[in-house]
Design a protein that fits this description.
Layout lengths: L16 H5 L7 E4 L6 H5 L4 E6 L2 H13 L1 H8 L9 H13 L3 H14 L27 H13 L1 E6 L2 H6 L5 E5 L14 E2 L2 E2 L2 H16 L3 E7 L2 H6 L4 E8 L11 E9 L1
Parallel strand pairs: 1-2, 1-4, 2-3, 4-7
Antiparallel strand pairs: 5-6, 7-9, 8-9
Helix pairs in contact: 3-6, 3-7, 4-6, 5-6
């Protein structure tokens, strides 16, 4: 039984953990340049971990949980009230998140909007403002046990959380590191182009740079595993890696009836 993340996450890896974990050999440190919901980190067994992401709200959420434990969990829970499960309250708290300069407050509000927003999406506009509409859930779930499990993981595994671009993460890798990358995916069609995250777009050049970083790290003896959609472009980009292809049922979609299996690719350098 795997440990579940406390965040909802589009494209989260909980459902395919068995396929990913079997590609991760033992190592001194586990490194994730794209933290996401941390499903892989929560279930990987390493003595140390470096978890990074460009989304500073996300990193602050993980850091405050690691540092404060129950007191931060109680602070997060204070936003999960029946009064706050209304569109007007949601929009006010979303505005509060966007206006706040307090990392702790922004972190707790990120958890609130994640659980109250439409489809649990984490999305920012080009100005860096969270812009997902209200989700209209009857009773949004407060992930108490999942938060506690995450807190325990951060102390059983010596973990460092950093807001950073993947390029700087790869530049600082050390022998003995094992890397897993779950970047924003290439779209499967012209209409499926959700690549804006934390106010930043992940372009084709970013995909190329990531592939180059992975290959360079592998040539230095560092094991790297990457996920993406299984497209011809991705297969060509990772041609020097061992490619594993399979289908994944997506859990987040605008239309529940259209949540079809998507072609998934694992590129393994090692």
């Amino acid at each position: 039984m795997y440990t579940k993340p406390f965040l909802k996450w589009a494209g989260g890896k909980y459902r395919i953990l068995d396929k990913i974990l079997q590609e991760l050999p033992p190592g001194a440190r586990f490194v994730e340049p794209f933290a996401g919901s941390c499903a892989v980190y929560l279930n990987a067994n390493f003595p140390r971990a470096l978890i990074c992401d460009l989304n500073s709200d996300l990193i602050h959420l993980y850091t405050h949980l690691q540092q404060e434990g129950e007191s931060f969990i109680a602070y997060c829970a204070s936003f999960f009230t029946p009064q706050n499960n209304m569109r007007s309250a949601y929009l006010a708290l979303r505005d509060r998140l966007n206006a706040s300069s307090d990392p702790r407050e922004r972190a707790a509000l990120l958890l609130y909007v994640n659980r109250h927003a439409f489809n649990g999406l984490i999305r920012y506009n080009s100005r860096g403002s969270f812009n997902v509409p209200f989700g209209k859930y009857k009773k949004p779930y407060f992930p108490l046990q999942e938060l506690r499990a995450f807190y325990r993981k951060t102390h059983s595994t010596a973990t460092e959380f950093i807001a950073a671009d993947f390029r700087s993460v790869f530049a600082a890798l050390k022998p003995g590191d094992v890397v897993y990358c779950d970047p924003p995916y290439v779209p499967l069609s012209q209409t499926a182009s959700f690549t804006t995250y934390a106010g930043n777009a992940f372009h084709a050049q970013d995909q190329n740079d990531l592939a180059a970083c992975a290959k360079k790290a592998w040539q230095k003896g560092i094991h790297v595993v990457l996920s993406n959609h299984d497209t011809e472009n991705m297969r060509n980009l990772y041609a020097s890696a061992i490619l594993k292809r399979f289908a994944v049922q997506r859990s987040i979609s605008c239309d529940g009836d259209k949540r079809k299996a998507a072609p998934e690719l694992l590129a393994v350098y090692g």
